[in-house]
C-alpha cells in the first residue's frame, strides 16, 4: 500500500519534472489578446492623409489592438508585441501604456520588452500623437482617440498575460507578389546599380509569419505576420473607419480560422429552419420597430464575435513600407488617363491630378478587400505549412537617441551629422496615394519666394539647418519649432526583440524598401559576427515599422538626392539612415554578446500637460419633434434580395461619440429563427456599413442620421432578415447617458 503510494508520487513528480523540462527545452509560455480600439466614429479627423476634411463619419469595420506575449518561463525573459489598426504608434501612447503596465505588473512589462506597432491604416481616428505636426489637421489632441487606444493596448496585453500557457512557435516566410508596388520608382533608381542588382524587385515581397500553438490542445491560438504595403487602399476622401487592407486581412484570417476549425459558417446563426413560402410572404409584413430604450448589455450581447479567451488572433503587421503602395495598377492622370510624369508624379505640373489605382479601381472598398485577401491567402499558406519550430533565447535591447545631432562615422572615416527635423517641398506634394497641396511636386528641391516668406513667418531655419538638410530645401522647419509645443520629435527609441531565430527591429518610422534592406542586412551581419554561433544565415530579421513612436520617413542617402515625398519627409537629413544603421549595429552587438549595459540615452518628453484640444465634444442631442432615436427615417425597400444586392435603412440617431460602444456594435443584421431574431452580422463584418451623417440642427436640437447598409454576401443564408441600429445619447453635456435601439422592417434573402 505504502510502496504503491510512493510509486504513484514518484510517477507524479517525474511527470511534473518532465513537464517543466519541456517548457525549458524549446517550449515557451505564450498568450494572445485582442481588444476593440475603434474610437470616435463622428467628426474626428483621420490620421494619415493630413486632409482636414477627412473626418470620421461611420464605421466600415472595427479596429482592434492585437497582442502576443512570449516568455521563456514564468519568471524568465519575455516580450510583448502589440499591433494596432492605427496610423502609427505614438510616443505619448507608449509612455502612458507603460505607466499602466507598471501599475498592473510592476517591472514585468517595460519599455525594453514591449513593442507597440501601427498597421498604418489611413482610415482611423487621429489626434493621439503629441507633436504638433501630427495634430494640426485634427485641431490638436483628441482625448477620446487617445483613451480608446490606451485602453485597447492595455487590455489586449492583460488578456495575453492572463492567457499565458505552454506552447510552441513556428516560423515561415514566403513571397507575396502583387500586394504592393514602388510609388517612387525614380528615387529607387538612384540607389547604386550593383546594390539594386541583388534584388529582383523594387519592393520587398517577403512575408514572415509566426504561428502560435497551444501545447495542451494542439490548436493554434494565433498568428502574426510582417509584410510591407501601405494602408492606403482607402482614399483620402473616405469617411468610414477602416483597418484598411491589413485590418481586412486580419478579419478574413480570424473568420477563416473560426469557420475551418469550428464549422462556424453554417452554425453561425444556430441551426437554420428551411424557409417556407409562408414565411417569405410574412416577412414583407414585418414592420419596423420604433426606437426604444434598451440596456447597454443588449448591445454587447448582440455582437456576433464575442471577445473571449478562446478567440484565435490573426494579425498583419507593417514593415519597411516607406515607398510601397497597395495601389498596384499604378498612378494615372485624372484628366488624360495617361501615366503621370515619372520623376515628379504630376500631370503637366499638377500634383493633384496624379492618383494611384488599386486593383478594384474605381471601387476602393474592393481594392481594400483584394489587397487584404492577397495578404490573408499568403498568411494561410504560410500558416498551414509552418514547420520550422522556434527554439532558443528571448532577449531585447532598447536605447533612446537624440536624432538632432548624431555623429555618424561613414566608410572612409568621414564623420557627418544628422540634423534637427525638417520637411521639404516634396512633403507638401503628398504621394500618388494621396496628393497634397497644389503647387508642389515630388522631387522639388526649390521653393518659391512666396512660400519662403510664409516659411520664414512661421520659422526661419537656422543657417546650420539649411546647410545640414541639403539637398533638401527646408519648407517646414519642424525641428526648430517649439510653439506652442514641439512640432517634431528629437528623441527616438530603437529596439531589438529576439525570439530564438527571429529578430524584430522596432523602427519609429517608415523605412523605404532599400533603407529597410540595408538595415536588416547590417544587423544580421553584426549578429552573426558577434553572436558566437547563436546567429547564422537562417536568422530571420524583420522590420516592425511605425513602432513605439513616429518620426515619418527614412530614405537612403541616394534616394534623398531626388527629394520625392519619402526623402522630403526624412526628418533628420541625408544621413538619417546611416545613423540608424550605426546605432542599430551597436544594439545588435550588445544583444549578440549578451551585454546588458546599453546606454539608455535621453528619455523622450511627456507632453501631455501642454496639449491643446480645439475639437469640441458633442454636448447634447435630441430627436426632432415627433420622432424617437432609433425610429426609421427611410425603411428598407421591398425584397427579395440576393447575393451582392445592397439593402439599407436610415435611422434617426445621436452622435456616436457619447458612447463608442467599444466591444459592442452600432449596426446588426438579424435573421429570424422561429420567433427570435438572431445576430448574423455586425460592425466587424466587411459586408456591413454603418454610415453616420450629422450633426443636423432643428432650432437648437442636434441629431444625426445613421444609415445601415448591407451588401448581401455570397454565403448568406436564405431567410428573413432585418437591420438593427444601436446608439446612445445625452440630452445635455451633463445629463445621464441613455441607450436606444430600433429595427427596420423584415425582408427576405433568397439564393440565386
Ligand atoms: C459542418 O456543419 C454542417 C452542417 O451542420 C455539416 O453537414 C458538416 O458535416 C460539418 N462539417 C464539419 C467538417 O464538421
Ligand atoms: C468564444 O468565442 C468563440 C467565437 O466567437 C465562440 O465560438 C465560443 O463559443 C466563445 N466561448 C465562450 C466561452 O463564450
Ligand atoms: C528622371 O530624372 C533622371 C535624373 O534625375 C533623368 O536621368 C531621367 O531622364 C528623368 N526621366 C524622365 C522620364 O524624365
Ligand atoms: C537634442 O539635442 C539638441 C542638440 O544637442 C539639444 O539642443 C536638444 O535639447 C536635445 N533635445 C532633447 C529633447 O533633449
Ligand atoms: C543566405 O540566405 C539567403 C536566402 O535566405 C541566400 O540567398 C544566401 O545565398 C545565403 N547565404 C549564405 C552565405 O549561405
Ligand atoms: C438606400 O437604398 C435606396 C434604395 O435602393 C437608394 O436609393 C439609396 O441611395 C440608398 N441610400 C444609401 C445611403 O446608400
Automatic annotation (TrEMBL):
Q: Which reaction does it catalyse?
A: an N-acylsphing-4-enine + H2O = sphing-4-enine + a fatty acid
- State its cofactor: Zn(2+)
Task: Extract one GO BP annotation from the record.
Answer: ceramide catabolic process
Please verify whether the record's keywords include Secreted.
Answer: yes
Main localization, broad class: endoplasmic reticulum
* Cofactor binding notes: Binds 1 zinc ion per subunit.
Neutral/alkaline non-lysosomal ceramidase N-terminal domain spans which residues? Answer: 28-582
Which domain of life does the UniProt lineage start with? Eukaryota
Q: What family, per the record? A: Belongs to the neutral ceramidase family.
**The name this protein goes by in its record:** Neutral ceramidase
